[in-house]
Design goal:
Layout lengths: L2 H24 L5 H22 L11 H22 L5 H8 L2 H12 L7 H22 L7 H20 L8 H23 L10 H29 L1 H4 L2 H16 L6 H18 L1 H11 L1
Helix pairs in contact: 1-4, 1-9, 1-11, 2-3, 2-8, 2-9, 3-7, 3-8, 4-7, 4-11, 5-6, 5-7, 6-12
Length: 299
């Protein structure tokens, strides 16, 4: 990758790592389902204005309404809701680590369930290490030795599964400009979350929400969703999907750093050990470690 690509990758990893911090602060004052609607609708408004400026609004065709609704459900509504629910009781760092299992579940869904990809040896190894890492992370909660509720951690894992399903569904939009498909799914998720947010907002007053919380809401919508999508899709075009997937390794690291620096969060030894195993699994899953090892042996 070029220096520009590396900079984009680091910026994207930092933004998405920060999104867990933004959510942790905002969800303390705003109901999770309301926060999901605010995030997707703000991001949608930004991307619609960009499409209008680029004269691409015409590509949001009515015939794509159902696929956009499904993509919005799988890639926004469900995972954002589960993550925000989980973050009502667990830290930003732990949520980001559990969410980093997305590539592991993507291999399982794409290769085993829908037969969309070929299951290769390094992917099998990566999945096994990933599952082992999750088991280690959850072990302290299962034994009653950790204060992080198991249900909240399972919510974050559920979000990763939903992202994996979205990744396999996304091939339907391969002929669309990336910013169009991003806007379409945000329109779909905004439509789906509006009635849910109305019901969930009972007893909540926007006027009683602090300025800090609202700043984090807009950071989630504008930075962590609209801007992040634009950077990610540009990185896909310039560096390819394999290189862009490296952001998965950076997000937990930045979220852990922000959580420690700003929220004074810490992980248990089991959670840190599980993260190390998961990180190894992601590196094996990526395939470059295997290719490098093979190349060294041949030389």
């Amino acid at each position: 990758m070029s220096l520009r690509n590396w900079i984009m990758l680091v910026v994207l990893g930092t933004i998405w790592g920060g999104s867990f911090l933004f959510a942790k602060v905002a969800v303390a004052e705003i109901p999770p389902f309301v926060l999901v609607f605010l995030r997707v609708s703000i991001a949608c408004a930004v991307l619609v204005s960009i499409l209008w400026h680029q004269k691409l609004l015409g590509q949001l065709k009515f015939g794509l309404a159902i696929p956009f609704l499904i993509m919005g459900l799988l890639n926004n509504a469900i995972p954002f809701s589960l993550l925000f629910l989980g973050q009502t009781v667990i830290g930003a760092g732990l949520a980001s680590i559990l969410n980093a299992t997305t590539p592991v579940f993507t291999v399982v869904v794409a290769s085993l369930l829908v037969k969309q990809e070929t299951l290769q040896a390094h992917r099998v190894g990566g999945v096994i290490l990933g599952v082992l890492g999750v088991a280690v992370m959850l072990s302290s909660s299962l034994s009653g030795l950790a204060t992080d509720p198991l249900w909240a951690q399972l919510c974050c894992l559920g979000a990763a599964v939903s992202y994996a399903c979205a990744a396999t569904f996304a091939y339907r939009f391969k002929n669309l400009p990336p910013q169009v498909s991003a806007t379409g799914q945000l329109l779909g998720s905004s439509f789906l979350m509006l009635p849910v947010a109305i019901i969930a907002s009972a007893g909540w007053s926007p006027a009683d929400t602090s300025l800090i919380a609202w700043m984090n809401v807009f950071a989630l919508g504008v930075l962590a969703t609209a801007l992040a999508y634009l950077i990610y899709f540009q990185l896909l075009v310039e560096a390819g999907a394999t290189n862009a997937s490296l952001v998965t390794l950076l997000v937990p690291a930045s979220a852990l750093f922000f959580g420690w620096l700003i929220l004074n969060e810490n992980l248990t030894s089991a959670q840190l050990g599980g993260f190390a195993i998961l990180l190894a699994g992601l590196l094996v899953l990526d395939g470059r470690v295997t290719q490098l090892t093979t190349g060294l042996r041949k030389s």
